[in-house]
Design goal:
Length: 96
């Protein structure tokens, strides 16, 4: 069975205040170097469909407010979140 897409992602985006406020959906068809991107900017809530060149690391700039939305590799993003949680727990234990 032939794969239709070589990359698919649907992520929640954070704004400058680290609040989850936007979304980004990316599809890259097999054999294509163009990404089909639908996003909602986490800063200004502007929604748009664009088709930029696909490359890693991937980022998109909002057409309305110029906020740069980065899409890190999922593994890196999960590591970063896990480390934040560890630091918070250590801080709470040291404050007790």
């Amino acid at each position: 069975m032939e794969r239709k897409y070589r990359f698919v992602s649907n992520r929640v985006l954070k704004n400058k205040a680290e609040e989850e406020a936007g979304r980004m959906r990316i599809l890259v068809r097999t054999g294509s170097d163009t990404a089909e991107v639908d996003y909602e900017c986490p800063e200004c809530s502007f929604k748009e469909h664009i088709e930029p060149e696909w490359r890693r690391p991937f980022s998109v700039r909002c057409s309305k407010c110029s906020f740069n939305m980065k899409l890190p590799k999922l593994r890196d993003e999960m590591k970063r979140e896990k480390n934040k949680e560890k630091r918070k727990r250590r801080e709470m234990q040291s404050n007790v």
